[in-house]
User: What shape does this take?
Amino acid sequence: MKPHSVFEKKSVMIITAMFCCLLWGSAFPSLKITYQLLGNVDEFQKIWLAGLRFTLAGVGILVFAKLKMRTVLKPKAKEMPFILLIALLQTFGAYVLYYIGLGHTTAVKTAVLSSLSAFLVAVMSHFMTKNDRLGWKKGLGLLCGFAGVLAVNVTMLSGAVFSFSLLGEGFVVLHSLLIAIALVLVRKFGGTIDVVRLSGWQFFFGGLLLCITGYIGSPGGVEMSAGVIALLFYMAAIAGVAFTLWYVLLKYHNATLLEQYKFANPLFGTALSVLFVPGEHIGIEMIAAVALVAAGMVIVNRHDKPLKAIIAIPEQDKKADNCSANGTGL
Assistant: This one.
């Protein structure tokens, strides 16, 4: 029987998943280059930039969903409190921390530390969802991931034993924590909400809140050059394009299967940051950190049962799993 869509093919699924990870990984150097082009920007100006990015991303997702996917965009009254909660956690809170944190640490470190959310989701899901318990394999994967997070802060090239600051690495870790909390909440309570509608509106409302906060703190905004504008639209497109492709994959493949490919996020983020961001470097400790994080993510998301057994889970649980798989890396 021939596949109904080219995206049903495993080879196309792998290529598309890797392309999404490449887009998500490119966000780290893109933002770092934006800061370098702008020169001296304060924290509120960074928040304002985040707001523009995610408001544009939300509008892009909603327009695409309306024109191409025939999605009903108007949120139901009972959905609004949950949409606003996810917007507050996943877009506003998490990206206030992310945009400030990246300004005080390297893009390479940020790429690795941001992957911490995947491991935090695994831990939280063990206690909050019935069908996602931690076994010894996932425990081993978590240990590898946390070892990678520790290794990324060992700066052998400068002679320091451990390098960590609250405004830099600390804020990126807190960003990962908020992302993980939002994803687990979506997984547990968001199964009845259309995932495209949820993502588009939470990006839009969260982005507006970021814009308002940034403007209040810095009414003058940011002097935008052509390069900054181009990078801004590119980073907005990252969220829209990668999300849409990931959603298409979720129509034909199990969410748990797709999650294992996200180990490529820190790999692409690290490599692109070293290639394109002046001053970024990679040493032995960074290679070890990326390897440990990648190994940990593969182990954590490795199937313990055949695919048939996974497909047999209740429809409601499948909807919730698919919702949770879309928030990461946007």
